[in-house]
């Protein structure tokens, strides 16, 4: 029984693991920063057409998510054009699905894009970080809105 459980765990890890796969030439879309220089902040949007878009921080990813028409070359017509969205968990440096992540707002930690949302895979980790770094609030993906992203950009 232990062997079967271990085999299932290994298979599920292989099937559901995600690699961001960037190199020294990969540039973030919004701020045009080299992604490899800031691995703790990398975010990715995979489109249904097979394209992958990199961002130097969650804030940049949300900027694109809320206003994809600003980049017409990607031909985004609706949210259904987005296949998957990933952010880098600040505690583990591993990619996690953004729609299940928690984002700390207002902390004393900044990204290469300035004031940003610090992502975590669990509310517990986000809460711990928030207490240690003077976070103001924790948001789920659906709670983040364009106004908040505009606010963060105005604070640069």
What can you tell me about this protein's structure?
This protein is an alpha+beta fold and 156 residues long. The protein has one domain (20-154). It is 28% helix and 19% strand. It has 4 helices and 7 strands, in the order αββαββββαβα. The longest helix has 15 residues, at 2-16. The radius of gyration is 16 Å and the shape is globular.
Fold topology:
Layout: H1 2-16, E1 43-47, E2 52-55, H2 58-66, E3 82-88, E4 95-97, E5 102-105, E6 118-120, H3 123-132, E7 137-140, H4 146-154
Antiparallel strand pairs: 1-2, 1-3, 3-4, 5-6, 5-7
Keywords:
156 residues, 19% strand, globular, alpha+beta, 4 helices, 4-stranded antiparallel sheet, 3-stranded antiparallel sheet
Strand order of the largest sheet: 2-1-3-4
Structural class, judged by helices and strands? alpha+beta
Domain count: the total is 1
Q: Residue ranges: pLDDT <50 for 5 or more in a row?
A: 5-16
Radius of gyration: 16 Å
Write the H/E string, N to C. Answer: HEEHEEEEHEH
Instruction: Give the overall average pLDDT.
Output: 90
Main beta sheet: 4 strands, antiparallel
End-to-end gap: 56 Å
Helix content: 25-40%
Summarize the model shown.
By secondary structure, the protein is an alpha+beta fold. The chain is built from four helices and seven strands. It has helices at 2-16, 58-66, 123-132, 146-154; strands at residues 43-47, 52-55, 82-88, 95-97, 102-105, 118-120, 137-140.
């Amino acid at each position: 029984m232990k062997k079967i459980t271990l085999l299932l765990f290994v298979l599920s890890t292989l099937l559901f693991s995600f690699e961001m796969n960037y190199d020294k030439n990969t540039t973030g879309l919004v701020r045009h920063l080299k992604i490899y220089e800031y691995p703790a902040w990398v975010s990715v949007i995979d489109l249904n057409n097979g394209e992958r878009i990199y961002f130097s921080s969650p804030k940049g990813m949300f900027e694109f998510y809320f206003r994809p028409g600003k980049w017409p070359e990607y031909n985004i017509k609706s949210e259904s054009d987005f296949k998957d969205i990933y952010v880098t968990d600040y505690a583990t440096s591993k990619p996690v699905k953004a729609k299940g992540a928690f984002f700390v707002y207002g902390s004393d930690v900044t990204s290469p894009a300035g004031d940003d949302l610090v992502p975590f895979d669990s509310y517990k980790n986000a809460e711990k970080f928030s207490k240690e770094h003077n976070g103001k609030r924790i948001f789920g993906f659906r709670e983040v809105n364009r106004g908040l992203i505009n606010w963060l950009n105005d604070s640069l």
